Amino acid sequence: MNDTPLIRLDHLSAKVRLPDGGRLTTVNNVSASFERGTSTAIVGKSGSGKTSLASIIGLLNNDYSGTLSYDGRDCAAWSDADRSHFRCRHIGFVFQNYSLIPHLSAWENVALPLQYRGGTPMRTIRRRAVRMLHTVGLAKRADSMPSRLSGGEQQRVAIARALATDPDLLICDEPTGALDTETGDMVAAILFRQVQELGVTLILVTHDPQLAARCERRLTIDRGKLS
Amino acid sequence: MIRMIVKDLRINPLRTSLTALSMFIGIVALIAGVLVGTLGRDYLEAVNARLSGKTPTYSAIIDVRSLADARTTTTLQERLTTFRPGTASAQYHLNDLAVWASSGGGMEIRHVTIVVTDAERMGVMPAPIIEGAWLNGADEPATLETVVNESARQYVHDGTVTLARTGNPQQVPARVNGVVADGADEPVIYINAITLQRYWPQAWATDGLTILVHPEKGVDDQHVKTALDDLLSDVGIGSVSSWNRSDNAGDYEQVIGFLRLGVIVTAMLLLAVSAIGMINIGLAGIEQRSHELLIRRALGATRASIAMQVIGSSVLLSLIIAFAAVLISAALVWAVPWMLPPTRRSNRRRTRTRRLWSRQAHPSPPRSSAPSPRPSKPYDCNPRWPCDDSIMEGLRVKTWVLTRFENHAALPARQPCLFPMQ
């Protein structure tokens, strides 16, 4: 058994440049660790730094100070290509506004990370994409364009896409934020099933207390500080 | 990646089409500019070559001792035919030659430009042959032969033109070998010098001789002049008294160069405008797709793959359009010569449809006992309708074998020749 946490944040800080030239601290000296197969909710008000922290953890932003390590490996020295490859193989993202590519069909959206991973024939990729859509109950809508799908269906396609590469880490930024309660519950059920059945590490960024309560751990962020 | 790039091109078909169109116009304009410049230059050179000789052409005025002896003239012509440093053509000065033509109700002497020359003139001052053939070589003609330009066509009747001399009642019919487009507005009749001296010796009263020389590429003109002097000395005719360049390439070269530069610069500006438009559209597309590109980054796309995808669609589109433009331009290259003034190639088509002289109507000019010669290449009759009987017979036999006709009478009828040989 590997005791090293999947992710370790050590005195992590990040700032963004404001239009007036000033700098705003979005993540302020955050230290935390995330174990494998656990679910963690990061809650906080709007503008508290939740999404900034999630993007740093997801290797989308490397403009930070402190240490971010995966499996004990410091990510600071990684090149952009290394970060992209790691993201492609080990991290899945689900965003609030679904973020499907509008001119690609459902299965093509799901197939994207597999295409970027490379080395797999297109026929196999399509088969796997349709299987992932079947997992979220959308196998019959594989050829539908995003504009033809409801909000809940789009978010399920986004979840299928995030899970397509069997990631170790699933980062969900307000995954039910744009959905009604019933659909939100269905989407949340799918996400938590991945944690329980596949051992995926889930980081859930939300301001929904009910959704946060379903996670094993809850971290609150306020003005960039984690508590 | 290719799949993604192709998919990108299909996101917005209208934008892709318009981008492609602007680029296509730019490329075709550039190619057309170069093409027009090059063909225009070739065309002007060809026109100039008709009027004043190929570039360069030198005119040698000969200080003549005597040209009365037919053997001397024949020897000169034979030596000019094999002149090594270039192509040389003699032009004999005979001032009292004219044409006997109808005027109002009667016939009278008409003074037109008459050039007494040889078959080699075509090598120095190439003029497209509109109908028939050019003058024959020195040892071949069996009759007094001429060629007329388009303006002098009016003097041709039944395949002959009647020549006369000032102050002399004698009229001599001369066979017309063909019609040339020599670029001259006034009527010009070209007479084969050897045939004139042989078949109408009374008219052979030369006042002088000019030899036009077009040196081979890389041959110094002074070397050519020396060679010509040696030739004249060997034949015993005289020597070069004046040696001048007669073509006017220098006058138009600069103008052509400037025009070509102008066309190319304009075309390049057009290409630049379409390229800038394409870049602009590309940038707008990137801005429009920034959210999508961020999603792709989150899904594992590297910066390089994003750049390749964005640029790749433009590059692929450019390649497709460039290929199409090259095809269109190739078609243009093929089509442009057909738009230019007559050439030998297009003349052949005309020859088939415009048969002004029939064999039956063609009179017999003074004949010699020599057998009927074949026209020499490259100023031959249309090879599809050879004038020589033996060739025609050969064609008939070939046709018979190919079609397996049993009956010789069933073979295609003999085609009439435009300018039949005697």
From TrEMBL, chain A:
<protein>
    <submittedName>
        <fullName>ABC transporter ATP-binding protein</fullName>
    </submittedName>
</protein>
<keyword id="KW-0813">Transport</keyword>
<dbReference type="InterPro" id="IPR003593">
    <property type="entry name" value="AAA+_ATPase"/>
</dbReference>
<feature type="domain" description="ABC transporter">
    <location>
        <begin position="7"/>
        <end position="227"/>
    </location>
</feature>
<dbReference type="GO" id="GO:0022857">
    <property type="term" value="F:transmembrane transporter activity"/>
</dbReference>
<keyword id="KW-0547">Nucleotide-binding</keyword>
<dbReference type="InterPro" id="IPR017871">
    <property type="entry name" value="ABC_transporter-like_CS"/>
</dbReference>
<dbReference type="InterPro" id="IPR003439">
    <property type="entry name" value="ABC_transporter-like_ATP-bd"/>
</dbReference>
<dbReference type="Pfam" id="PF00005">
    <property type="entry name" value="ABC_tran"/>
</dbReference>
<dbReference type="GO" id="GO:0005886">
    <property type="term" value="C:plasma membrane"/>
</dbReference>
<dbReference type="GO" id="GO:0016887">
    <property type="term" value="F:ATP hydrolysis activity"/>
</dbReference>
<keyword id="KW-0067">ATP-binding</keyword>
<dbReference type="InterPro" id="IPR027417">
    <property type="entry name" value="P-loop_NTPase"/>
</dbReference>
<dbReference type="InterPro" id="IPR017911">
    <property type="entry name" value="MacB-like_ATP-bd"/>
</dbReference>
<dbReference type="InterPro" id="IPR015854">
    <property type="entry name" value="ABC_transpr_LolD-like"/>
</dbReference>
<dbReference type="GO" id="GO:0005524">
    <property type="term" value="F:ATP binding"/>
</dbReference>
From TrEMBL, chain B:
<feature type="domain" description="MacB-like periplasmic core">
    <location>
        <begin position="16"/>
        <end position="230"/>
    </location>
</feature>
<dbReference type="InterPro" id="IPR003838">
    <property type="entry name" value="ABC3_permease_C"/>
</dbReference>
<keyword id="KW-0812">Transmembrane</keyword>
<dbReference type="Pfam" id="PF02687">
    <property type="entry name" value="FtsX"/>
</dbReference>
<dbReference type="InterPro" id="IPR050250">
    <property type="entry name" value="Macrolide_Exporter_MacB"/>
</dbReference>
<keyword id="KW-1003">Cell membrane</keyword>
<dbReference type="GO" id="GO:0022857">
    <property type="term" value="F:transmembrane transporter activity"/>
</dbReference>
<comment type="similarity">
    <text>Belongs to the ABC-4 integral membrane protein family.</text>
</comment>
<feature type="compositionally biased region" description="Pro residues">
    <location>
        <begin position="363"/>
        <end position="376"/>
    </location>
</feature>
<feature type="transmembrane region" description="Helical">
    <location>
        <begin position="20"/>
        <end position="40"/>
    </location>
</feature>
<keyword id="KW-1133">Transmembrane helix</keyword>
<feature type="domain" description="ABC3 transporter permease C-terminal">
    <location>
        <begin position="265"/>
        <end position="336"/>
    </location>
</feature>
<keyword id="KW-0472">Membrane</keyword>
<protein>
    <submittedName>
        <fullName>ABC transporter substrate-binding protein</fullName>
    </submittedName>
</protein>
<dbReference type="GO" id="GO:0005886">
    <property type="term" value="C:plasma membrane"/>
</dbReference>
<feature type="transmembrane region" description="Helical">
    <location>
        <begin position="315"/>
        <end position="340"/>
    </location>
</feature>
<dbReference type="Pfam" id="PF12704">
    <property type="entry name" value="MacB_PCD"/>
</dbReference>
<dbReference type="InterPro" id="IPR025857">
    <property type="entry name" value="MacB_PCD"/>
</dbReference>
<feature type="region of interest" description="Disordered">
    <location>
        <begin position="347"/>
        <end position="379"/>
    </location>
</feature>
<feature type="transmembrane region" description="Helical">
    <location>
        <begin position="261"/>
        <end position="286"/>
    </location>
</feature>
<feature type="compositionally biased region" description="Basic residues">
    <location>
        <begin position="347"/>
        <end position="357"/>
    </location>
</feature>
